[in-house]
Amino acid sequence: MTAQLNPRGDVAVLVPAAGAGERLGPGAPKALRPLAGEPLLVHAVRRVAAAPSVHTIVVAAPATEVEAVRAMLAPVAPVTVVPGGAERQASVAAALAAVPAGPEIVLVHDAARALTPPGLVESVAAAVRDGHDAVIPVLPVVDTVKEVDAAERVLGTVDRSALRAVQTPQGFRRSVLLAAHRSAGDALTDDAGLVEKQGIAVTCVPGSELALKITRPFDLSLAEHLLSTGA
């Protein structure tokens, strides 16, 4: 039986959470690493579940941790947990296959973006609801960006005015995401990239500074500080 949040909601959120997270250092799979005493995944699911239009959340957990993740999330929200794959794309596909009939908007969200506000979930979903096939939240690139060669020599300065840093959740019409995964060739770490390969336009909406990706120990420290200030 598929767990549901808001039975009137039109959004399913997929959370691939089977990755090792090697850049965070040795330890448990990244989504299960603690942040202020709770796993990143718990923080991420709690915030997604607070978005009013979310009908279903499906988590793709490490294959050996499915029951543990199910028990961990039971007090947080009604969530469906399935075994993830060796690559992110396989985990997303497994979660997508578990979405019940009903929601026609599907969002894919990184567990590592544990502080993403519910408002960003709603913003992405609203853009898909307004008729866009694929939607990504983005932030302007603020650093100067240099193109370099294999010897780390600078080849030139990239015009950052046309660059955006991409966040999650990424949102799609369900049929669009299904078609993209069925046609997937090379594994990509970005679902919008799969959709782009199908020739479908991807639309940007403003992202959130709180939707930072926790990848390195420094990011974890920053997230802990943000939580301590009420983020």
Q: What would your notes on this structure say?
A:
The chain is an alpha/beta fold and 231 residues long. It is 29% helix and 23% strand. The chain has helices at 40-49, 66-73, 88-97, 118-129, 174-182, 191-197, 217-228; strands spanning 11-16, 34-35, 38-39, 54-61, 80-83, 105-108, 134-140, 145-148, 154-158, 164-166, 170-173, 203-206. Strands 1, 4, 5, 6, 7, 10, 11 and 12 form an 8-stranded mixed β-sheet that branches. A two-stranded antiparallel ribbon has the order 2-3. A two-stranded antiparallel sheet has the order 8-9. A hairpin with a 5-residue loop joins strand 8 (145-148) and strand 9 (154-158). The longest helix has 12 residues, at 118-129. The relative contact order is 0.18. The mean pLDDT is 91.
Task: Write a brief caption for the model.
The chain has 231 residues and is an alpha/beta fold. Helix content is 29%, strand content 23%.
- Quaternary status: single chain
Overall pLDDT level? 91
Spatial gap, N to C terminus? 34 Å
Order of H and E elements: EEEHEHEHEHEEEEEHHEH
As a percent range, the share of helical residues equals 25-40%
Radius of gyration: 17 Å
Q: What share of residues are in beta strands?
A: 15-25%
Coarse morphology: globular
How many β-strand stretches?
A: 12
